[in-house]
Specification:
- By secondary structure, the protein is of the alpha/beta class.
- The chain has two domains: 2-177, Rossmann fold (3-Layer(aba) Sandwich); 195-275, Pantoate-beta-alanine ligase, C-terminal domain (Pantoate--beta-alanine Ligase, Chain: A,domain 2, 2-Layer Sandwich), CATH 3.30.1300.
- Helices cover 39% and strands 21% of the residues.
- It is built from eleven helices and eleven strands.
- Strands 1-4-3-2-5-6 form a six-stranded parallel beta sheet, with helices on both faces. Strands 8-10-11 form a three-stranded antiparallel beta sheet, with helices on one face.
């Protein structure tokens, strides 16, 4: 595995490989790796000649400065995990390399409806930060295939929108990989390491609540089943940002379901100071 820290050196290396007709797969991460991240590497290895990954904790996507400070950083462990998984190229840039002119006056992206609901509503500015870092990374790497995890459902849709906005949708194929879960159902997340032992036990309620929606939702109003799901979370000490049912393709919130429309149940809630998100697609 080759480690690059400078954008120019990485870009030149990958362009040379593309000229040799090598196909590039790319999985961006913020580190603190778990099996879900490694699954992206495994998927990328199946359809590409070279697998490139990145580790960068992006400051512009944290609407809460304290959350940014507390984000787990485990670089040495991450490098070993990527190497063991068969990653070919690892990019570990500094903030000055990603944002050479600083983080003020960065480009604004017209994301429309996607930025007004769910994560966009509760984390103002978050998706602008996601677009800022992804635009920069995609310009540097210019992969043939991009690999993202379904756990960040709305973020995947935002990144697809970004790729259209910057005119790379005919060049980059976005691959959404299934959410990896612990044996007890909790969606794998770097934030899980911040959970206290008792809270780690309670955290499974969020996946259980979404599974309850998936197994019990019926055509008609979605209000009753959402209320029941929220009650499950409240009884286990969660502070809820949202529990919603939305169109799986547009994220338009669904108040009355026809039983045929492909939908997704999504939730975000805090346990103490740790924010957890999860989702489950219904009637696939």
């Amino acid at each position: 595995m080759i480690i690059f820290k400078k954008p120019g050196a990485l870009h030149d290396f990958l362009e040379k490989k593309k000229n040799e007709q090598k196909k590039i797969g790319f999985a961006p991460t913020m580190g603190a790796l778990h099996a879900g991240h490694i699954s992206l590497v495994n998927d990328a290895k199946k359809g590409n000649d070279i697998v490139a990954c990145s580790i960068f904790v992006n400051p512009t996507q944290f609407n809460d400065p304290e959350d940014f400070k507390k984000y787990p950083v485990t670089i040495e462990k991450d490098v070993l995990m990527f190497e063991k998984a068969g990653c070919d190229v690892l990019f570990i840039p500094s903030a000055i390399d990603i944002y050479p002119s600083g983080t003020n006056n960065l480009r604004h992206y017209e994301l429309g409806f996607l930025e007004t609901v769910l994560e966009g509503k509760f984390r103002p500015g978050h998706f602008q930060g996601v677009c800022q870092i992804m635009h920069r990374l995609l310009e540097i790497v210019l992969p043939h295939n991009l690999y993202l995890g379904q756990k960040d459902y709305q973020q995947c849709m935002v990144i697809k929108k970004l790729i259209e906005l910057i005119g790379l949708d005919d060049r980059i194929k976005t691959n959404i990989c299934p959410t990896f879960r612990e044996k007890d159902g909790l969606a794998m997340s770097s934030r899980n390491t911040r959970l206290l032992p008792n809270d780690r036990v309670k955290a499974t309620t969020i996946s259980a609540a979404l599974r309850y929606i998936k197994e019990n939702i019926k055509p008609g109003s979605t209000e009753r089943i959402k209320n029941a799901t929220e009650e499950m979370l409240l009884k286990n000490g969660f502070q809820i940002d949202y529990v919603e049912i939305a169109d799986a393709g547009t994220l338009e919130l669904i108040e009355d379901w026809d039983g045929k429309q492909k939908i997704v149940a999504l939730a975000a809630a805090f346990l103490n100071n740790v924010r957890l998100i999860d989702n489950m697609v219904i009637n696939t």
